[in-house]
Amino acid sequence: SHCWIARQADGSWRVGLTRFAVRMLGEMVDLGFEVEPGAPVRSGQIVGWVEGFKAISDLFCIADGNFVEGNAVLKERITLVNGDPHGAGWLYRVRGQPDAKCVDAQVYRQLLDKTIDKILEKQKDSRIK
């Protein structure tokens, strides 16, 4: 998952899309949530979806715990996800223990480099054929 998480003062976690994910989805069009505030959630559970101009993607929960809220501002200003994905364009908050698979920014950059290398290799292979 190409999401970032940030611990909040109240102990919850704010979750948003990384710049890479935003670029892959394109200009944001809509989003929705399939769980209500306060609902119990599990790590890996689909909690909603986001629709970009290029693709639609499920939003997966990053923690076992309770869904706190979706970012209500995005109902009127979905383009904040594109313009400020690590700030005002955050997607949702959850309270609980993050999945052990969550990695820090440095490890994410390394994984992203590998992902980009694979994409470029596929593009190169398709041009050769």
Q: Could you provide a short overview of the structure?
A:
With 129 residues, the chain is α+β, with helices and mostly antiparallel strands. It has one domain (3-98): OB fold (Dihydrolipoamide Acetyltransferase, E2P). It has helices at 19-25, 80-83, 105-128; strands at residues 3-7, 13-17, 28-33, 40-41, 46-52, 56-60, 63-70, 92-98.
Q: How much beta, percentage-wise?
A: 25-35%
CATH class: Mainly Beta
Question: What is the count of distinct domains?
Answer: 1
Order of helices and strands: EEHEEEEEHEH
Write the CATH fold name. OB fold (Dihydrolipoamide Acetyltransferase, E2P)
Report the count of strand segments.
Answer: 8
The whole-angstrom Rg is: 16 Å
**Poorly predicted residue ranges:** none
Strand order of the largest sheet: 1-2-8-7-4
Shape: globular
Structural class designation: alpha+beta
* Biggest beta sheet attributes: 5 strands, antiparallel
Distance between the termini: 31 Å
Mean pLDDT value? 87
CATH superfamily: RNA polymerase II/Efflux pump adaptor protein, barrel-sandwich hybrid domain
Helical residue percent? Answer: 25-40%
